[in-house]
Amino acid sequence: MPNTKIAGVGKYIPEKVYDNAYMESIVDTNDEWITRRTGIKERHVSADDEYTTDMATIAAKRAIDNAGMQPEDIDLIILATVTPDYFSPSCACVVQNNIGAVNAAAIDYNTACSSFVTGVVMADQFIKTGFYKNILVICADALTKAVDYKDRATCVLFGDAAGAAVLTADDEHPGVLAAEIGADGTGCKAITSLAFRNDPEEIEKRISGRKETIWMAGQAVMKFAVKAMADSSTRVLEKAGLTYDDIKLVIPHQANYRIVESAVKRMGISDDKVFLHLEKYGNTSASCIPVALAEAIEEGLIERGDKIILVGFGGGLTWGAVVLEF
Ligand code: UT7
User: Fold this and answer.
1) Which of 18, 32, 37, 216 to mutate to test ligand 1, by most ligand atoms within 8 A of the CB atom?
2) What DSSP state is assigned to residue 178?
3) Closest of 152, 154, 138 to residue 54, by C-alpha
4) What is the pTM of this model?
5) Closest C-alpha to ligand 1, atom 13
6) Could you tell me how many helices (H) and strands (E) the chain has, helices first?
7) Which of 18, 53, 239, 308 is deepest in the core (most CB within 10 A)?
8) Residues 6+ apart with CB under 8 A from 298
């Protein structure tokens, strides 16, 4: 049975920046509150004519290039987003066309901010069964297009980005060692953005009245997140027969440094084993983990042979963790 190796990674961050001073100019907030409560200093914002598939396409090309492959080598593209350009076609089909991945099947999916871990787990199944060899997992979101800029409790949190990875079948490399994904639908109303459903109660919650904007019960999500990330990481480690001493780096979903801080405490590991970039980008939904992975590799924090944990939580509510040898 082949193993699943990360062959290459890529990221794209839009140029425009909203710093905390800018946020102060549009809502009743301040740098001190945002920094102390979230750790965020800046978030990047897609241009008015720049959408999810535009960002996804660039990250995808970079990941394929980084893997030393050609677009024709890709057998499957799975793309996660909560801000699609269209309901149909899927974003994965648009990207397939943009990059010329003519041999790839293409699927969109959504487990919100947990989606990169979900994508790795799905790719791992296709690879281990021999169904596909090279799978491109893309996470991309233009969340700022769905942010309610009248709601200070959410608008300071989110930014835009795309991250991608090519996963490949490898008989020698240990690759994905253990993983889990999960969902708790009782929390389905904790983070919402509406599509066609007419849901007056949900619309009422939105200060702007725009139903597609993001609404969140921040405290409830925070409580869920700490336990979900810490316990999920620990379970996959146990499943792999490893301990945190074997792990070089934990890459968590980057929603709020307080969530990460509490989760790290619950895992019983030191802060220097955890990669954080949320100061620069804020919460970019599913893109957080693959962008962080790409940056950790760029910065030399992870080398081939190192064992790492990727762990996320998100709307749904969902969670997932994977331990792998890079
Ligand atoms: O990716 C997955 C989804 N996202 C998350 O994981 C986010 C999870 N939640 C969080 O990160 C935190 O709950 C927040 C950062 C959203 C909020 O932090 P908190 O410590 O839970 O604050 P809070 O909602 O309890 O609000 C405390 C106070 C309130 O004022 P009062 O009622 O005490 O007078 C809020 O109105 O802070 C106020 N507040 C703000 N003040 C200044 C809320 N947002 C702001 C703001 N600036 N931007």
Assistant:
1) 37
2) E
3) 138
4) 0.96
5) 218
6) 11, 13
7) 53
8) none
